[in-house]
Amino acid sequence: MKNDMFFFYEGFHPMFIIDYNSFNVVNINEKAKNLCNMDLSKVNRIEDFIPYVNIHIKDKIKIDYILRNKYIFHSWFDVYLKKINLENKDYIWIQLIDVSRYKTKEEEAKYIAYHDTVTNLPNRRYMDDYLKVIFNSAMRENKNIGLMFIDLDNFKSINDTYGHMAGDEALKTVSKHIKGALRKSDLIARFGGDEFLVILEDMPKIEIANSVAERIIEELQTPIIVKEKKIKITCSIGIGMFPEHGNDMESIINYADKAMYEAKRLGKNTYKKNY
User: Fold this and answer.
1) How many CB atoms lie within 10 A of CB 96?
2) For 116-165, how does the pLDDT look when each residue is reduced to its tens digit (9 = 90+)?
3) Could you give the residue range(s) of every CATH 3.30.450.20 domain in the chain?
4) What is the spatial distance between Cα 225 and Cα 97, in angstroms, rounded to a whole number?
5) Residues of the chain with CATH 3.30.70.270
6) How far apart (Å, rounded) are the C-alpha atoms in residues 269 and 235?
7) Rounded-to-integer distance, Cα 28 and Cα 45, Å
8) Residue 49, phi-psi category: left (phi > 0), alpha (psi -120 to 50), beta (remainder)
């Protein structure tokens, strides 16, 4: 134990020793003092620095935490907990290892995996996961959900005429216009190519979805600039409602997709909620 205590005081990582029963801090090393910006006399319970640590007290485990001190300093740590015995009394040895740089890279990778690289909107993978959550919630709470399938009209001609880089810039601008027409609670994702999906949560009546669709169409009446030329891009929108048009997300997406094609058949630049 003497070697362990030398390691405690001279170690490279912040360490705490807390009472096994009360979770009060009984000792901290210099690294922990610097991290918490206070000495032992001002440190009380370990939960002030590591939330809910008491529920993880076992013989020896590793967990992830974001540590917060009174200066709102946020950092990711691996937290190692080990039960020890000093002079016939049980304590918990806590060691913190900063993994913030790895977590930052992990979060960046996760963001890239779930967002479209052109528009920076959530992508289809993100939407698939998100839909599962909100559909389960809607079924439990007996709520309505609106879903819009949006397809840009004749967008291929922009790529063909001005090139794909110009097409990408047009997609960025159009996505911002669509997003600007939505409510704060709505979510838009790029579904693929020139297609977008909009989720309208907690929709008590179809008229709300109609109003949102009308705002999107109106928003896109303003021409955008593509290669120094003004181009008007319109869209066709299909609306599906849960549970009116299906009992699962795949059924609702298919319904909205067919309604969107009906809008195109009727001349484009409009929306349909049935087909």
Assistant:
1) 21
2) 999 999 999 999 888 888 888 888 888 899 999 999 999 999 999 999 99
3) 2-102
4) 51
5) 115-272
6) 5
7) 12
8) alpha
Q: How far is CA 2 from CA 5, 30, 107, 217, in A?
A: 5, 18, 40, 74
Q: Which residue has the higher pLDDT, 188 or 48?
A: 188
Structural tokens at position 111:
């963001």
The CA-atom distances, in angstroms, between 154 and each of 67, 198, 208, 232 are 51, 20, 27, 11
Out of 56-60, 84-88, 197-201, 211-215, least confident range:
56-60
CATH topology of domain 2-102: Beta-Lactamase (3.30.450)
CATH code given to domain 115-272: 3.30.70.270
Residue bearing the bigger pLDDT, 213 or 94 = 213
73-79 contacts, C-beta under 8 A, 24 or more apart: 75/100, 76/100, 76/102, 76/103, 79/50, 79/53
- What number of H helices and E strands is found in the chain? 8, 12
What is the token pair recorded at 17? 């020793």
Burial profile 61-74: b = 16 or more Cβ within 10 angstroms, e = fewer = eeeebebeeeeeee
Cα-to-chain-centroid distance, residue 9:
40
Q: pLDDT by residue (tens digit) across 220-257?
A: 999 999 888 899 999 999 999 999 999 888 999 999 99
Long-range Cβ contacts of 65-73 (<8 Å, 24+ apart): 67/35, 67/96, 69/35, 69/36, 69/37, 70/37, 71/37
Residue positions annotated with a catalytic role: 194
The neighbouring-strand residues paired with 226 are 229
